[in-house]
Design brief:
Distance between the termini: 69 Å
Mean pLDDT: 90
Order of helices and strands: HHEEEEHHEEEEHEE
Low-confidence stretches: 1-21
Structural class: alpha+beta
Strand order of the largest sheet: 2-1-3-4-5-8-10-9
Helix content: 25-40%
Strand content: 25-35%
């Protein structure tokens, strides 16, 4: 009589390995509540919310009625960061998420800019807003981001210091990042509160 113990053991190890790599995804209601905190208060009720399913895929959690899209925290990335942005930026943002699997850092940005330049990725030419909220955790019971920090980004494709009058030096004053590229944007990062 043959023992099935080796097959059972192999199946158990495979199941354990898949559980070890499983992503812990917050419930949809929690993803919606946390991501909306990045948006201006009066724009939250009508915002579309994108979040993550148990496979780590981006899905629509709530269809909105205004021009704002909020993105829940990526469970595969350490830390917590949520964002809201104008719907015209979605092709650019979605392509960035796709490219993250293949490219990192500047290489990912450059590939996306190239695709905008070639007309493969739509990008508005007028300024569009992005709000980014980070924190150490989300308190679902209170509906609050713990240690929250909100910064603002105004996408202004192909803007330069000469066309905007902005510095390209990072700091707490507004400054221009990636000048002259499809991904040029004004960074507004207020000083962080001291504890």
């Amino acid at each position: 009589m043959t023992s099935h113990r080796p097959l059972f053991l192999a199946a158990s190890l495979a199941a354990a390995a898949s559980l070890a790599f499983a992503i812990e995804v917050a419930p949809p209601a929690e993803q919606i509540a946390s991501s909306l905190l990045a948006a201006p208060t009066e724009r939250r009720a009508g915002a579309t919310v994108l979040g993550y399913n148990e496979k780590g895929e981006v899905v629509t959690l709530r269809k909105g009625t205004n021009d704002l899209i909020c993105l829940a925290d990526d469970p595969a990335v350490k830390g917590i960061s949520v964002a809201c942005y104008h719907k015209d930026l979605e092709p650019f943002m979605a392509r960035g998420r796709e490219l993250a699997a293949k490219y990192q850092g500047k290489e990912r940005h450059e590939q996306r800019w190239k695709e905008v330049d070639e007309g493969k990725v739509k990008m508005p030419r007028e300024p569009r807003m992005l709000y980014v909220l980070t924190g150490s955790s989300f308190d679902a019971a209170k509906g609050e981001m713990v240690d929250s920090y909100l910064r603002w980004v105004v996408y202004t494709p192909y803007a330069t210091p000469e066309s905007t009058g902005l510095s390209t030096k990072s700091g707490t004053a507004p400054w221009l990042m990636y000048p002259g590229t499809a991904g040029a944007h004004i960074m507004i990062s207020p000083p962080k509160e001291k504890k």
